[in-house]
Structures are given as structure tokens and as C-alpha cells.
Design a protein that fits this description.
The chain is built from 9 helices and 12 strands. By secondary structure, it is an alpha/beta fold. The chain has a single domain, classed as Alpha-Beta Barrel (TIM Barrel), CATH 3.20.20. The radius of gyration is 18 Å and the shape is globular. Bound molecules: NADP nicotinamide-adenine-dinucleotide phosphate.
């Protein structure tokens, strides 16, 4: 797979990256950890070099699976590893998840992620969501310190709008942005992608398959049942909008078939060819899904 320069940084990434949110299990349907490890191995075998994870994905579970698999395969140096900061939680049954991008949380979380990921450095370290209770300057100064210490290579954010990214640039060399983007959800074309292009950021766009909806495997009577694909979590699964999407997917299927692709493959190809997209993140829970998603 041909690599692309990741914005102004020294990193080079494949246009498809493996997303590992699903490796955490809940709010997705339960996973098989061996299958997740095999999915990661298959992705690397297919040439993918960008892996995205986060502490909150299964409360450390996704990072642990990624960490032990990279260690077993002895491939850490070849991989561009992206993880995130920004959610704290309590141990025990009642997790009480809250946003926390304070300096203290940044310094604590980086060491926890390095341990789970069995590595000395993170290639792209991203603030997961804007935290209204912490000044952006405080978070960015902490990120800059981690970069100076060599614990992270590139400072990134996820889910920040253009104004928030502009604010970051006053304090630190922000070079990466991770917004949501797929064939159905294109809001970022208005301001976020143009901002990233103007500032020569590397971008990791997420949700390329619209949480699996764009694979064409669901139907009116085959609605997904896990929490992550309910209207409360993502409005696209509201019945009327969902049915409109299904109708559009039927049309896309025909177009994809003319190019000998499945609809999932077609929308992945669509995403990686959009202006401003450096790498489209695609989630997968097993090798079969990875194989389909990387054969484009
Ligand atoms: N920064 C953020 O706030 C944020 C938010 C969301 C995601 N992300 C990142 O972006 C990554 C990708 O997004 P995503 O995982 O939400 O969604 P996605 O890539 O749109 O969809 C992935 C899901 O679709 C299903 N799938 C994938 N390939 C398939 C295939 N070939 N056939 C059938 N089903 C298939 C799998 O779920 P099932 O098997 O359960 O159907 C898989 O977990 C995440 O893993 C994460 O790394 C970041």
C-alpha cells in the first residue's frame, strides 16, 4: 500500500488506518480478543501501518490488545501508533466517565498508555474531545512538554472545530486532526477539512463505514442491536433517517458492483480520495473484515 506524507510531519502513513474502538467491546457487541489480535495482524500483513486506539476503548482493553500484538509481532518501529487523552473513569462497576484534559490528567494518562501499549513513545497523541472545563492552553502546554520529553512525536486533536484548532496553535505545534467523515456524514467539508488543508495538518478521518452501516449488511428488519448503533448514540440510526440511508446504499451497491467492489470497499475508496483526507480509519473486529476493507 503506497504511503502518504502525514501533513508537515516526518511520518508516512497508509491511506487506510485500522481503527480499534471495537477491540474494547462495549458499546459494540462483545468481541473475541484472539480475533481482534488476528485482525491487527492481518491489517499489518496487508501493509497497513497506522493503528488508532484510545484508553477509553474498553477502559484500557483496546490499548492492551494492540500493545501485546505489536510486541508479539515485533513490529513497533514500523507502525505509526495513534492514541488519545481526555477521558477519566473510576474502577468498579459504576465508571463515572468524565472529560479531563487538565495538565495533571495529560501527564498521568500518557504513562498509563505507554504501559498498556508496551512502548516508549506514541507517534500521534490526540486530545479525544474538547473539555469545556480546561483552558485549551493548559492542555496544549502539557502536550508540548510530552513532545519535548520524546514521549510523543506529533500533537493531535479529535473532534475539535476550526476555531478550537486555531486556539491550540497559539500554544503548541498542532499537526494532526481526527474528525468524523464518511459518505453519509460530511459536515467537516465546510470548515474543518479546509482548515486542515490550509494548515497542512495530517488528518485521520473516522467512522469511514458509518459504524458498519455502509457495508450494506443491515436492513429494515436487520437493525443492529448494540448500544453504539442506536439513535441515542448516533442520530443516523433514527428510523426514518436509517431507512433513507438503506435506500441510498441499494443504489451505491449497484455502482460498486460495476467496479467489482462491495459497497464497503467503494466507500473506503471514496473516503481516501477526498481532498484533505490523509488516512481514513476503518474499524474491524476480525481478519475477514480487514481483508475485505483492504482489498480495494
Ligand atoms: N476520535 C473519536 O472520537 C473517534 C470516534 C469514533 C471512532 N474513532 C476511530 O475511528 C475508527 C473507525 O471508526 P468506527 O470503528 O467507529 O467505525 P467504522 O470504521 O465506520 O465501522 C467499523 C465497524 O463496522 C463493522 N465492519 C467493518 N468492516 C466490515 C466488513 N468488511 N463487513 C461487515 N462489517 C464490517 C465492524 O463492526 P461489527 O462487526 O460490530 O458490525 C466494525 O467495528 C475507530 O475504531 C476509532 O479508532 C474515533
Amino acid at each position: 500500500m503506497l504511503k502518504r506524507k502525514f501533513g508537515k510531519t516526518n511520518l508516512e502513513v497508509t491511506p487506510i488506518g485500522l481503527g480499534t474502538w471495537v477491540f474494547g467491546g462495549w458499546p459494540w457487541n462483545e468481541i473475541n480478543e484472539k480475533e481482534c489480535e488476528a485482525a491487527l495482524e492481518t491489517a499489518i500483513g496487508a501493509g497497513i501501518n497506522l493503528i488508532d486506539t484510545a484508553p477509553i476503548y474498553g477502559f484500557g482493553r483496546s490499548e492492551e490488545i494492540v500493545g501485546r500484538t505489536l510486541r508479539r509481532l515485533k513490529v513497533r518501529e514500523k507502525i505509526v501508533l495513534a492514541t488519545k487523552q481526555g477521558f477519566s473513569w473510576d474502577d468498579g462497576k459504576k465508571r463515572n466517565v468524565r472529560k479531563d484534559c487538565s495538565k495533571k490528567a495529560v501527564f498521568r494518562e500518557i504513562d498509563e498508555s505507554l504501559k498498556r501499549l508496551q512502548t516508549d513513545w506514541i507517534d500521534i497523541y490526540q486530545i479525544h474531545w474538547p473539555d469545556e472545563n480546561t483552558p485549551i492552553g493548559e492542555t496544549m502546554e502539557a502536550m508540548l512538554k510530552l513532545k519535548d520529553q520524546g514521549k510523543i512525536k506529533v500533537i493531535g486533536v479529535c473532534n475539535y472545530n476550526a476555531e478550537q484548532m486555531k486556539e491550540c496553535l497559539k500554544y503548541a505545534p498542532l499537526e494532526s486532526s481526527q474528525p468524523p467523515y464518511n459518505y453519509f456524514q460530511r459536515d467537516i467539508e465546510k470548515e474543518i477539512l479546509p482548515f486542515c488543508i490550509e494548515h497542512k495538518f495530517g488528518t485521520l478521518t473516522y467512522g469511514t463505514l458509518c459504524k458498519g452501516l455502509l457495508t450494506g449488511k443491515f436492513g429494515i428488519d436487520k437493525k443492529p442491536n448494540d448500544p453504539v448503533r442506536q439513535q441515542t448514540w448516533d442520530p443516523i440510526f433514527e428510523t426514518k433517517r436509517y431507512e433513507e440511508c438503506l435506500a441510498e446504499i441499494e443504489k451505491l451497491k449497484k455502482q460498486a458492483a460495476e467496479e467489482n467492489l462491495t459497497v464497503g470497499q467503494w466507500v473506503i475508496r471514496w473516503a481516501i480520495n477526498q481532498p484533505g483526507v490523509t488516512c481514513a480509519l476503518v474499524g474491524a473486529r476480525n481478519p475477514k473484515q480487514v481483508k475485505e476493507n483492504t482489498t480495494i
